[in-house]
């Protein structure tokens, strides 16, 4: 018969509990104690701001009290790292803040101890952050730290300090898998808020939670026959306690599972203006969060620093402020760093120039300088360029006449025989004296020679006919260049006016907008959100500058594009495009600044994106009710904007960031943009008409691709409603004399009245296909001639 041994179940349970306790202690000691020993005290740069009033970089530093070690301007060394290079910084001012603070603070850490805090070692890192915070912070006399925790149960408040914090944190080990509890969040907030009345002085709660109110596994309410509290119960409790006590609530949502909507509401219920909701998806950020919050109520150091002269201009680049503290009493050197940035490439912050420099007379002098530059550019383009073109013409086409055997050559106008050594022009088939050519401005036979039996190629036409604003020949590109430069200067004038008037109200409105509780909390959740909030004035400045620049350039280019037509000039078309330019420029540069700080923190690449988007908008607006096709306008706008951006970026990089450099950069930007876009659009045009006569319009170009490809009929005539408007006196041209259509991949002319193509009258009301370089004349006696050009491959 087999015997069975009696089992001692009590002993077995004790062994299991001991094993479980050993596992818990092992996990805890591995996750907390070893790391805590490595970072007992923490040197921290809490914040960095750029001050244009003092021309300094201002930093707030939290330095722990360690033995007799002194944190002074002699023991602390600040440097700045920019793009791999390190630059020294000098002290402007150094002061201790909070040492004389007579306020008393009671700061309570409320720690979520639910099972979800096991994820990503959240509980381990949260306890480590609390431990290091208390080791690093020095509170004013009489102020105290407290610690508590909650899951399904709510634990008592315990006073903690540097000597007992490790032991108190050990009461909250990491839950083992399957043994974690829920999150009785609402009851915990109510209980801890009510218990604040037992604390002295100003009451501050740092509530850390990674989940929502979860009562599924909670037996408390069932066993005690109690109704679970609601959000309204929580809110009413906070409002009641805040009415009699000074409460500051700092809810910290950890991870995507946190009840952000509920936690964000808690700071809104208190009268305190400092408290706020803080979100982090990374538990490694908790130490910085705790330190930055509590530093407002502790002893810190305020340091004003002067950057090295070569890096005193901030253009949105990433910078790292580095602190190295070496003092007697420290076991080893302590270091800290802080990443920050300021300004943008459009509106930099220059700490090398005193704000007192920018007086009203200073700006007026620079406006005068800009006016002289624009006037000088106009004179240069009107007189110097034609003079250079004439010199080039003479060097290429004017030669001394050499007599030919048995042949006498005569000037086609004066009929004087050429003598040896006379200056003659040999640009086309007809030899002409230089005096005659200069008097006419072109070959005597032009443009009739293009309709001869042995036609000329039209090279005898002079591309410098007319005055500067006629946009004939090369003057077209020069007009767009000058009007673009004028638009850039107009934008700079508006910028100067902005600097002369007080726009503090605008800065304050923007500051209030982005520092509203919800927007501020949302921004602080994003990378770069803190830097963005610190640079609100620069955002306003860049938005206004971008608006001025975009709007003025669009208006200037729309104006010159409208002037280039033979149709009647329309202020309405320019006005509509100008209004759209203002709206689009505001949207592009406002969102662009946000994009630079919150999405792509590389200022150069961010500028590429911003100006590419601006180019799309620029080209689209330019195509409205104009000859410019939408796709080609966008393509030309993007190419031109990017090239101009690169030029502007290069100029701002090599030139000192002063007002004169910005003025020149704006003018260059506008001029290059105008010249580029007209060149790109001209090269993209498929069909166009070039006016040959009358003389005052010779060389002007009329793009016709856009409307023909849309299936529209283009009328030629004396009516102002005609797209090709004959606005000069020509009694042989009717109101609607002929029309052009696009069919079967070819352009056809349909004469409504007598019309000639290459000197031959074509049938009226019938389609006649046009070939490249065909000469159209509106009747045998008409002075209105134009050449059809095909530029497509």
| Rg (CA only) | 39 Å
Instruction: Quote the distance from N terminus to C terminus.
Output: 108 Å
Oligomeric state as shown: single chain
Q: How much of the polypeptide forms β-strand, as a percent range?
A: 15-25%
Query: Can you list the strand order of the major beta sheet?
Result: 8-7-6-9-10-11
Low-confidence stretches: 1-10, 12-39
Helix content: 40-55%
The total of beta strands comes to: 30
Q: Helix/strand/pairing class, anyone?
A: alpha+beta
Rough outline: elongated
The largest pleated sheet is described as: 6 strands, mixed
Number of helices: 20
Task: Calculate the mean pLDDT score and round it.
Answer: 83
Descriptive overview:
α4 (185-195) runs parallel beside α6, α9 packs antiparallel against α11 and α18 packs antiparallel against α19 (659-684). The N and C termini lie far apart (108 Å). The protein has a six-stranded mixed β-sheet, sandwiched between helices. α2 (122-136) links the parallel β6 and β7. It is elongated. It contains 20 helices and 30 strands. 41% of the residues lie in helices and 19% in strands. It has 793 residues and is an alpha+beta fold.
Write the layout of secondary structure elements.
Layout (H helix, E strand, L loop, with lengths): L8 H30 L5 E8 L4 E7 L13 E7 L2 E4 L1 E8 L7 E8 L9 H15 L7 E7 L7 E3 L4 H5 L15 H11 L6 E8 L10 H5 L6 H14 L2 E8 L5 H9 L9 E3 L5 H9 L5 E7 L6 E2 L4 E7 L8 E7 L8 E2 L9 H38 E3 L22 E3 L6 E2 H7 L34 H26 L3 H11 L2 H8 L4 H6 L1 H28 L7 H28 L4 H20 L7 H25 L4 H26 L2 E7 L7 E3 L1 H5 L4 E4 L6 E2 L12 E6 L2 E6 L4 E2 L2 E2 L6 E2 L5 E3 L7 E6 L3
Parallel strand pairs: 6-7, 6-9, 9-10, 10-11, 22-23
Antiparallel strand pairs: 1-2, 2-12, 3-4, 3-14, 5-12, 7-8, 13-16, 14-15, 17-18, 18-19, 20-21, 20-30, 22-24, 24-25, 25-28, 26-27, 26-29, 29-30
Helix pairs in contact: 1-2, 2-8, 4-6, 9-11, 11-15, 11-19, 15-16, 15-17, 16-17, 17-18, 18-19
């Amino acid at each position: 018969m087999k015997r069975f041994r009696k089992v001692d179940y009590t002993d077995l349970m004790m062994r299991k509990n001991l094993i479980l306790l050993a596992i818990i202690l092992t996990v805890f000691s591995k996750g907390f104690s070893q790391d805590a020993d490595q970072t007992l005290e923490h040197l921290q740069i809490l914040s960095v701001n750029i001050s244009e009033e003092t021309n300094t970089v201002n930093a707030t530093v939290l330095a722990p009290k360690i033995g007799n070690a002194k944190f002074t301007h002699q023991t602390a060394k600040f440097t700045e790292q920019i793009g791999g290079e390190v630059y020294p910084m000098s002290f402007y001012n150094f002061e201790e803040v909070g040492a004389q603070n007579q306020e008393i603070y009671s700061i309570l850490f409320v720690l979520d101890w639910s099972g979800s805090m096991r994820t990503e070692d959240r509980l381990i890192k949260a306890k480590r952050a609390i431990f290091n915070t208390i080791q690093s912070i020095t509170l004013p006399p009489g102020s105290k730290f407290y610690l508590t925790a909650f899951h399904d149960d709510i634990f008592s408040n315990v006073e903690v300090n540097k000597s007992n914090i490790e032991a108190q944190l050990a009461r909250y080990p990491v839950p083992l898998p399957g043994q974690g509890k829920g999150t009785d969040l609402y009851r915990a907030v109510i209980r801890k808020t009510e218990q604040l009345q037992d604390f002295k002085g100003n009451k501050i709660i740092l509530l850390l939670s990674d989940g929502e109110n979860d009562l599924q596994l909670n037996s408390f309410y069932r066993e005690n026959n109690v109704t679970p509290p609601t959000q309204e119960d929580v809110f009413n409790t906070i409002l009641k306690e805040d009415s009699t006590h000074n409460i500051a609530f700092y809810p910290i949502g950890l991870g995507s599972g946190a009840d952000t909507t509920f936690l964000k509401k808690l700071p809104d219920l208190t009268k305190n203006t400092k408290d706020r909701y803080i979100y982090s998806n990374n538990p490694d950020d908790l130490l910085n969060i705790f330190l930055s919050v509590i530093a407002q109520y502790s002893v810190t150091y305020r340091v004003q620093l002067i950057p090295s002269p070569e890096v005193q201009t901030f253009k949105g680049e990433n910078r790292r402020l580095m602190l190295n503290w070496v003092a007697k009493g420290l076991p080893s050197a302590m270091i800290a760093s802080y990443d920050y940035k300021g300004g943008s490439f459009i509106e930099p912050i220059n700490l090398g120039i005193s704000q007192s420099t920018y007086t009203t007379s200073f700006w007026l002098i620079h406006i005068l300088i800009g006016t002289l530059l624009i006037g000088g550019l106009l004179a240069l383009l009107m007189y110097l360029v034609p003079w250079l073109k004439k010199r080039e013409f003479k060097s290429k086409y004017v030669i001394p006449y050499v007599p030919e055997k048995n042949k006498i050559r005569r000037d086609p106008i004066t009929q004087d025989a050429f003598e040896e050594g006379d200056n003659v022009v040999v640009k086309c088939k007809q030899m002409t004296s230089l005096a005659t050519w200069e008097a006419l401005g072109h070959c005597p036979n032009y443009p009739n020679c293009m309709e001869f039996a042995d036609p000329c190629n039209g090279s005898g036409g002079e591309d410098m006919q007319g005055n500067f604003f006629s946009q004939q020949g090369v003057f077209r590109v020069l007009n767009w260049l000058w009007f673009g430069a004028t638009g850039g200067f107009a934008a700079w004038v508006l910028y100067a006016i902005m600097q002369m008037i007080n726009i503090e109200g605008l800065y304050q409105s923007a500051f209030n907008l982005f520092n509203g509780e919800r927007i501020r909390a949302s921004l602080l959740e994003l990378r770069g959100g803190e830097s963005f909030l610190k640079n609100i004035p620069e955002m306003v400045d860049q938005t206004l500058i971008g608006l001025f620049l975009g709007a003025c350039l669009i208006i200037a280019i729309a104006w010159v594009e409208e002037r280039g037509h033979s149709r009647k000039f329309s202020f309405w078309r320019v006005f509509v495009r100008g209004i759209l330019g203002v709206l689009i420029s505001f949207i592009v540069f406002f969102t662009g600044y946000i994009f630079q700080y919150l999405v792509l923190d590389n200022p150069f690449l961010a500028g590429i994106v911003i100006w590419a988007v601006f180019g799309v908008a620029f080209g689209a607006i330019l195509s409205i009710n104009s000859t410019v096709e939408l796709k080609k306008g966008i393509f030309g706008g993007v190419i031109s904007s990017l090239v101009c951006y690169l030029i502007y970026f290069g100029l701002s990089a090599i030139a000192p960031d002063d007002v004169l450099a910005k003025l020149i950069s704006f003018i260059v930007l506008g001029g290059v943009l105008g010249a580029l876009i007209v060149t790109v659009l001209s090269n993209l045009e498929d069909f166009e008409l070039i006016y040959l006569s009358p003389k005052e319009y010779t060389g002007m170009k009329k793009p016709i691709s856009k409307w023909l490809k849309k299936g529209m009929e283009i009328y030629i005539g004396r009516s102002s409603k005609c797209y090709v408007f004959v606005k000069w006196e020509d009694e042989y041209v009717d109101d609607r004399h002929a029309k052009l259509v696009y069919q079967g991949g070819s352009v056809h002319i349909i004469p409504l009245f007598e019309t000639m193509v290459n000197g031959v009258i074509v049938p009226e009301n019938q389609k006649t296909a046009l070939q490249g370089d065909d000469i159209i004349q509106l009747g045998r006696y008409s002075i209105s001639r134009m050449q059809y050009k095909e530029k497509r491959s």
